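Why should sequence recovery work at all? Because a backbone constrains its sequence more than one might expect. Tight turns favour small or flexible residues, buried strands favour hydrophobic ones, and helices have their own preferences. The token representation captures these environments compactly. In the example below, the structure is given first.
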């Protein structure tokens, strides 16, 4: 499995394209603006077809190209039920959009829940629910790759904003401790913005959320 890191859109939101040439499958995690233009040549080069679009959460910068990608690829869209309104009727975020941003809703084909196991690319991914930044934020953990795609729950030396509607710092901190810090320390954390990190590094030095509540 290859992990392609594709920063896209007005605030460099990262879409992660997971490809497996052996099976011809591809999964896209999050859909920032214009990421599809970066995805297509990779699919062509590796002989893969996009079969799945997994949304870590419903904020506009992670879903802006979702409807276009679904039309173009026919990929199954999966997301947590708690973010249905944000994803299917994104006009509810209008007050928080940057000027000139256009949004189109996309229907969620299958709802995700914490504890779900997804089979794709010949591998199994564990879904964990990590609310606090957004009610429906989830992460996707792939144990053999030692990788967790966490959306905006946790960053390298930071955490996701909790001051937007549906955000709550106490909920976020609890989610990070219980759902991210319980992953193996050598798990690579792939966030929605910025550089990667590891679970062990964040447990040791994250200034917002310590491994043990003080």
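From this structural description, the recovered sequence reads:
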């Amino acid at each position: 499995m290859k992990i392609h890191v594709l920063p896209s859109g007005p605030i460099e939101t990262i879409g992660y394209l997971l490809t497996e040439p052996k099976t011809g499958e591809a999964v896209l995690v999050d859909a920032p603006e214009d990421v599809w233009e970066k995805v297509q040549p990779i699919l062509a080069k590796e002989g893969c077809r996009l079969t799945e679009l997994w949304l870590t959460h419903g904020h506009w910068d992670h879903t802006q190209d979702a409807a276009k990608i679904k039309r173009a690829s026919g990929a199954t869209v999966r997301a947590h039920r708690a973010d249905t309104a944000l994803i299917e009727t994104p006009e509810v975020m209008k007050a928080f959009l940057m000027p000139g941003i256009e949004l189109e809703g996309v229907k969620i084909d299958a709802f995700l829940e914490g504890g779900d196991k997804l089979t794709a690319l010949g591998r199994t991914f564990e879904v964990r629910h990590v609310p606090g930044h957004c009610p429906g934020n989830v992460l996707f953990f792939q144990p053999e790759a030692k990788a967790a795609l966490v959306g905006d729950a946790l960053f390298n030396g930071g955490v996701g904003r909790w001051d937007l509607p549906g955000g709550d710092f106490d909920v976020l901190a609890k989610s990070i401790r219980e759902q991210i810090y319980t992953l193996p320390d050598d798990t690579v954390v792939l966030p929605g913005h910025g550089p990667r990190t590891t679970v062990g590094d964040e447990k040791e030095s994250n200034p917002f959320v310590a491994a043990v509540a003080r």
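A few observations help interpret the result. The two ends are 39 Å apart (CA to CA).
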